[in-house]
Amino acid sequence: MVFSYSCNDHAPEIVFFDLETTVPKRVGDRFWVLEFGAIVVTPHKLNEVESYTTLIKPKDLSVVALKSTRTDGITRKAVENAPSFEDVADRIFGILNGRVWAGHNIQRFDCLRIKEAFEYINRPPPLPVGIIDSLRLLTQKFGRRAGNMKV
Q: Is this prediction's pTM over 0.90?
């Protein structure tokens, strides 16, 4: 779903968000959300409405490396005292639900991880009114000549 709207005063707010997750080691293992960060802006002037960021402790701490080899720097020690996803689910739902979701590679990754995280705690996931994925936009505009645009 790609979002478009006409200029009017009732356009939905846009939430730019990103997740950091574990990387499953085996087929069938799940992704665990380790960090959620978002900034909500008005659609026309992009004025900040609110922002929120939190580390998240997975149910199984052993899925988080003791020493991070990834660029996010998230270690087991960093998340051991963080709230669980269930603890922050209401806040995340409130930030995402009914807004335009925006970010890089969110259609193929972040949107799916949010849905899975809410399903795991037996709650309906938040729903966007539209999606703006910069990876998709850049790929359409520049194609292969832009190189690896996943990062």
A: no
